[in-house]
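Quick one, tokens below. Sequence please?
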């Protein structure tokens, strides 16, 4: 893509902020969205690195023919990077046309374009997004892992328009055996919601497959849900994300958001065998 193409907006339209009733012009680029109100300079620039996804809404009033584009963002505090990301929703009304159906069609184009851009940033080598394979140890963290999945992870995956297949582990080495036999081509990545032990099971299961050389390249993400979450802390530190002092629920939500934005990064594994 040329620099000229990068500078030209992919889409541009006028919306109304549903809360403030402010008239806004939005311009969508490959890496950001610019918000304009009155000036030629943007009032606000939203990086797509901070955007989980979007959805489409409809007005509650019977005579409201508008369609709504809803953006879900998790913004870092530029003045104090030690604070956790703040979740902000942008509820944007589009009412250019006289009928709801016409407005819906146009807003759907924004939603589809955004979704395609965000998915291609995450998985640039495919046009079809596959679900995550999610392992949850229901007993991990005194039972918190299960609640973290339903209360923190599911909402963010929904905002990002990502699907998943949930597997509750039933005993020790359950995930290890499951991964050894799973059809990995059906999934885009594996997410583990537990402590560090379940992550070890998944890695060992991948290494014990007959096709381990290709299987071990499957992206694996960790969302803290146990009593020991050293791996998540290390990843957060390397990603320059806050984790110290956060309740595990907030840490898990932030980790989940980052997993919806992060490209897979190879890491070294060491295998020791003692006779």
């Amino acid at each position: 893509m040329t620099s000229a193409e990068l500078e030209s907006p992919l889409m541009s339209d006028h919306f109304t902020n549903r809360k403030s009733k402010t008239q806004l012009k939005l311009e969508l680029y490959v890496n950001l969205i610019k918000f304009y109100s009155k000036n030629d300079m943007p009032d606000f620039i939203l990086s797509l690195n901070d955007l989980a996804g979007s959805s489409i809404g409809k007005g509650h009033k019977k005579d409201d023919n508008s369609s709504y584009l809803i953006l879900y963002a998790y913004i870092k505090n530029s003045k104090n990077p030690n604070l956790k990301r703040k979740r902000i929703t942008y509820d944007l009304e589009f009412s250019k046309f006289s009928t709801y159906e016409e407005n819906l069609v146009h807003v759907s184009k924004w939603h589809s374009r955004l979704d395609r851009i965000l998915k291609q940033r995450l998985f640039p080598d495919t046009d079809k997004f596959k679900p995550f394979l999610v392992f949850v140890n229901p007993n991990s963290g005194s039972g918190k892992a299960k609640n973290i999945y339903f209360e923190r992870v599911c909402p963010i995956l929904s905002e990002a328009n990502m699907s998943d297949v949930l597997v509750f582990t039933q005993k020790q080495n359950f995930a290890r055996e499951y991964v050894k036999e799973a059809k990995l081509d059906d999934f885009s990545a594996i997410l583990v919601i537990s402590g560090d032990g379940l992550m070890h099971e998944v890695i060992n299961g991948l290494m014990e497959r007959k096709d381990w050389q290709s299987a071990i390249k499957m992206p694996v993400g960790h969302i803290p849900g146990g009593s020991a979450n050293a791996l998540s802390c290390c990843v957060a530190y390397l990603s320059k994300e806050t984790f110290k002092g956060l309740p595990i629920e907030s840490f898990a939500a932030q980790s989940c958001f980052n997993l919806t934005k992060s490209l897979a990064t190879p890491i070294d594994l060491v295998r020791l065998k003692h006779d």
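The mean pLDDT is 88. The radius of gyration is 21 Å.
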